[in-house]
Amino acid sequence: MSIGIFAEVYLVDGKTIRKAPRSEKDEDIRPIVREATIYNIIGDHPRIAECTSRGRIDYIDIKYYPLGDVASFRREREISPELQEKWFEQLIEAIVAIHRHCIIHSDLDLRQFFVDDDYNIRLGDFNSSQYPGHPSLGYEKATHCLPRDYDLPNTTLSDLFALGSTLYELVTGKAPYSELYPTEPKDIIQSSDPNVIRACAERQHLADPEVEKRYINHVFPDLSYVYGGDVILGCWNGSISSAEEALHLYKHGPY
Q1: What is the distance between the alpha carbons of residues 138 and 153, in angstroms, rounded to a whole number?
Q2: If we measure between CA atoms, which residue out of 137, 144, 141 comes closest to residue 162?
Q3: For residue range 226-235, what is the model confidence (pLDDT) as tens digits?
Q4: What domain range is 131 assigned to?
Q5: Please, what is the Cα angle at 76 between 35 and 111, to 5 degrees?
Q6: pLDDT tens for residues 116-161?
Q7: How many domains does one find in the chain?
Q8: Looking at the domain assignment, is residue 104 inside a domain?
């Protein structure tokens, strides 16, 4: 299907997505081993993408979800209020599930969640994730990133901050402060030319420091009329300290 930053990704037999290292270099092997290890730790869970190669670490087989990821689904189709409510809750449930294993996803956003055949959502893409004794291999993009010392391990709070931005993305259809980023033409977005990709990334990164500055100063997008705004704000400002607390607030209100 494609060649990514560190992995080759294939559709096998129309039912399975296979991810394998792009090369034998350590930098390409480590993310695959990390993701395979995370799936092995979590096991089967209704909020987690179904891994069919558990026990292996040299490649990863994930069930193919034809409905795609939530970001694409949300962008291309109208979603009903009922579906939005269900997915809002299920996003949080997925984070509850991984945090119970002391796993920090470290790269949360809406494109990391997939829509299954029953219109439930499942979290995947654990190639940067952190688990006990193994610091993360990366961190979130600026719109979803808690400003912090990036030389230190990621934390529950950094994942919760990214969860807040992901919930905002679900409800509004755009990332926080997306208006600060240039809108690229479709031919630029889909280009495989390394020079075009690099130039696009450089333009995108010009806005990152401004977003980080706003987050440091606790200047967040207006949530006055945003569904679930109390949960989103709690994730952003640190008043919510666990995914379980976020789920309780969403379902039942404050403790």
Answers
A1: 10
A2: 144
A3: 999 999 999 9
A4: 67-176+220-252
A5: 15
A6: 999 999 999 999 999 999 999 999 999 999 999 999 999 999 999 9
A7: 1
A8: yes
H helices within the chain, ranges in order?
26-42, 70-76, 81-99, 156-172, 186-189, 194-205, 208-216, 229-237, 243-252
User: Which of 115, 167, 130 lies closest to 38 in space, CA to CA?
Assistant: 130
Residues whose CB falls within 8 Å of the CB of residue 180, separated by 6 or more in sequence, listed in order: 207, 210, 211
pTM of the entire predicted model: 0.91
91 within 8 A of 167, measured Cβ to Cβ: yes
Phi, psi of 138 (to 5 degrees): 180, -170
187 in any annotated domain: no
User: Which residues touch 152 (CB under 8 Å, ≥6 apart)?
Assistant: none
Q: Give me the CATH number covering residue 228.
A: 1.10.510.10
Dihedral pair phi/psi, residue 63, rounded to 5°:
-55, 135
Q: Is residue 123 part of a domain?
A: yes
Is residue 29, in this structure, part of any structural domain at all?
A: no
The residue length of the chain stands at 255
